[in-house]
């Protein structure tokens, strides 16, 4: 392979052109019979004292010296020339600080490789070295409070650590709750030295003292000698929410006066399928011994902002009823019911908001509702 590279390099030199990569301009080498190509172009934050290699292509000339300059033409170091290659240490590049304010630890060094040849010719080739974190994460934006059944693809925090050449002496994980918290070591998690996963669906919420609305921060730290790389990720704890809302109409029409939240369907008067039925003076009541009861909520915007645990709390704080004699547009009720799902009894919480009430000749004949429900997992 090296012989093929050398042959291809000399073919380029014969026409006087060479490109170091797709992002760099072609350089006029004036058929000098040589070229110097930086091979190692990607390193990590921890590779601050490692040798990188320049591959040397020659044809009847020799490299007498090679200096490495920054983008402003300042000489950073002189490379050591060997048999077909030259090397220099990344420690000569500077403090590994990037950005306009020198406050970023990753970035790119734009360099020039200046080579003095035995023929008296001077090559001046552009090159660059990219500096990235040694730690790479596949991050998780949010997790659902107390829910161990979340989609694994969405709740698994993946991590890996690698360098160009620097050894990893230590790799640790710390956590804190919310921005104002203090980092402590995550003793409950054993990190793999190279890569691994943390399933946040199995998080111990009690140990971390987390509640909906909190943010969990993880700080990964990799150490090589006196150098450190730190990467921080954050995960928002979101509440368990209702399913999407549905709408229905409850009316005095005998062919559709009953309604079931289980099926989302209306049924005729006397049916055994309904859970509630329309009552005179625009109300509703439970029918067919359905295991469902209601508590009225007066809090403004409760329907649009409530989560499942808020609904449970509101229900438990109120006095459940099975009959509501009259309703008005804007009324809100939370409800609790028990259903059999795949042979098991499941407790379901729901919420209703009354919409338009239709009145004919002074008597209400129907009212619309919007409702949503869900099951708390814990």
Report on this structure:
The protein is mainly β and 378 residues long. Helix content is 10%, strand content 47%. The two termini are 59 Å apart.
Form type: elongated
Based on secondary structure, the structural category is mainly beta
Uncertain spans: 1-30
DSSP strand (E) fraction? over 45%
Cα(first) to Cα(last) distance is 59 Å
Instruction: Give me the count of strands.
Output: 29
Largest sheet: 5 strands, mixed
Give the neighbour order of strands across the main sheet. Answer: 4-11-10-6-7
Mean pLDDT: 90
How many helices? The count is 5
Helix share of residues?
under 10%
Integer-rounded radius of gyration: 35 Å
Essential attributes:
five-stranded mixed sheet; mainly beta; 378 residues
Outline:
With 378 residues, this protein is mainly beta. It contains 5 helices and 29 strands.
What's the topology here?
Blueprint: H1 2-15, E1 17-18, E2 27-28, E3 34-38, E4 42-44, E5 51-58, E6 63-70, E7 75-78, E8 80-81, E9 85-89, E10 107-117, E11 122-132, E12 135-138, E13 142-144, H2 152-155, E14 156-161, E15 170-177, E16 184-185, E17 195-199, H3 205-208, E18 215-224, E19 227-238, E20 246-251, E21 258-260, E22 265-267, E23 276-279, E24 283-286, E25 292-297, H4 302-305, H5 308-317, E26 323-324, E27 332-341, E28 344-360, E29 363-374
Parallel strand pairs: 4-11, 13-19
Antiparallel strand pairs: 1-2, 3-5, 5-9, 6-7, 6-10, 8-9, 10-11, 12-14, 14-17, 15-16, 15-18, 18-19, 20-29, 21-22, 21-23, 23-24, 24-26, 25-27, 27-28, 28-29
């Amino acid at each position: 392979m090296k012989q093929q590279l050398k042959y291809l390099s000399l073919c380029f030199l014969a026409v006087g052109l060479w490109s170091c990569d797709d992002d760099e301009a072609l350089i006029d080498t004036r058929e000098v019979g040589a070229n110097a190509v930086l091979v190692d172009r990607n390193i990590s934050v921890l590779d601050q004292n490692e040798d990188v290699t320049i591959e040397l292509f020659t044809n009847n000339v020799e490299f007498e010296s090679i200096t490495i300059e920054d983008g402003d033409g300042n000489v950073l170091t002189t490379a050591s020339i060997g048999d077909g290659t030259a090397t220099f240490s990344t420690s000569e590049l500077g403090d590994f600080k990037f950005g306009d304010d020198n406050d970023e630890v990753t970035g790119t060094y734009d360099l020039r490789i200046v080579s003095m040849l035995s023929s008296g010719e001077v090559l001046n080739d552009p090159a660059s070295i990219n500096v990235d974190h040694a730690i790479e994460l596949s991050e998780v934006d949010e997790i659902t409070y107390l829910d161990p059944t979340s989609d694994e693809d969405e709740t698994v925090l993946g991590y890996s650590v690698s360098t160009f050449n620097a050894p990893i002496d230590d790799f640790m994980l710390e956590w804190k709750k919310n921005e104002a918290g203090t980092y402590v070591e995550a003793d409950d998690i054993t990190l793999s030295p190279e890569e691994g996963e943390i399933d946040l669906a199995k998080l111990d919420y009690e140990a971390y003292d987390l509640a909906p609305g909190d943010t969990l921060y993880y700080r990964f730290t990799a150490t090589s000698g006196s150098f450190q790389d730190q990467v921080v990720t954050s995960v928002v704890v979101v509440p368990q929410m209702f399913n999407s809302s549905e709408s229905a109409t409850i009316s005095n029409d005998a062919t559709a006066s009953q309604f079931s939240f289980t099926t989302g369907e209306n049924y005729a008067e006397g049916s055994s399928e309904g859970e509630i039925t329309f009552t005179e003076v625009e109300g509703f009541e439970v029918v067919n011994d359905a295991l469902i009861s209601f508590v009225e909520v007066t809090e403004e915007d409760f329907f649009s902002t409530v989560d499942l645990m808020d609904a449970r709390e509101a229900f438990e704080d109120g006095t459940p009823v099975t009959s509501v004699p009259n309703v008005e547009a804007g009324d809100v009720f939370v409800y609790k019911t028990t259903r059999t799902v795949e042979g098991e009894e499941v407790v379901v919480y729901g919420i209703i908001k009354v919409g338009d009430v239709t009145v004919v000749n002074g008597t209400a004949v129907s009212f619309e509702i919007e409702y949503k429900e869900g099951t708390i997992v814990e």
